Amino acid sequence: MKKLVLKGTALQRGQTHGEQMRNEIHEVLDYYRSRFLSNRDKLQSHVDQLMAKVELLGKDYKEEMDGIASSANVDPFWIYCINARSELMSSPVASSPMECSTVSFPKNGLLGQNWDWAEALEGKLALADITLENGHRFFTMTEPGMLAKIGMNDSGLGVCLNILPARKKLTGLPVHILLRALLECRSVEEAKTLIQIHGAGKASHVLVADSTQTVAVELAPDQPWFQNTQEDWYLHTNHYLQQGQAQPTTTRECTETRLKTLHERLLYKPESSLSNIRQLLDINEKPFPILRPYAWHELTGNGGTLVTMLLDLNKKEMLLREGFDSQNGFDRYSFS
User: Fold this and answer.
1) pLDDT category, 246, cuts 50, 70, 90?
2) How far is CA 319 from CA 114, 153, 311, 323, in A?
3) What is the pLDDT of residues 145-165, one digit of tens each?
4) Does residue 219 contact residue 205 with C-beta atoms inside 8 Å?
5) Homologous superfamily, domain 101-334
6) Nearby residues of 237 by Cβ (< 8 Å), 6 or more positions away
7) 66-101: pLDDT as tens digits
8) Of 290, 238, 266, 236, which is closest to residue 103 (Cα–Cα)?
């Protein structure tokens, strides 16, 4: 996985990102253009709604995206689309998100997830090591042109993501922009406040944790729904646990079975360890594997597990593995 080291002003960080990921940005844009609305006027209107929420956040994210666009020789509109692609690709008709699975031991500061997405992004992802002008630093595994996704910061805060189904058009702050803002938080309390203010208008599950606390929230079009994280373990796949929310169409059996499988394995082996999280995320039993080889999916086309992430927040350490082969090794990133 390519490593980006991004420092300086927002514009400078964006320019470095765009220069070093120029080829990958153009390649993934070829894919995403095929998944977005073909009507440019409707797409523009949706992006304008979403970007208005980004600017209301009061951060310099648009400037960073513009820097990416200028160095990558891309119309800034398409970088905005990449950063809002979860909202732009969400469909009330085909409401079946990809199969990501999250496992956490809230009392021990241990968590991890598989991130499943389109095969078109294989070999094009990056680990961004970002230092802001105030000195705050974080690692994020992300897509070309995207400001952030999942990861960990130097305050020992970790962030995971699962996409959820939606029954309506999503017009809130794009979830990947929220993830970036969460990685800039210094505490779980600060992150929770941010979610309370900006959590609506999305269809995602986000988990934020440090070594002693965990906040898990289902972000819905109407409001954020905080979940119970007081048990020995906390699990989430790709359906709402909150009653009354949208449920997957074609993938409902898959997401519910994966959640049940994780619960059953933990009842048999409840060990709170990073190695146990890895074993859980490596389950590849058919027909609904947690570590998923490529298969056709209505949202993405061919897709499967692209990355497995493990976080030990006590050690401020992140492990990343590419692909769906459980024998592949992990790359290690640490602040210690």
Assistant:
1) confident
2) 12, 13, 6, 13
3) 999 999 999 999 999 999 999
4) yes
5) Penicillin V Acylase; Chain A (3.60.60.10)
6) 99, 100, 101, 102, 162, 255, 256, 258, 259, 262
7) 999 999 999 999 999 999 999 999 765 545 666 799
8) 236
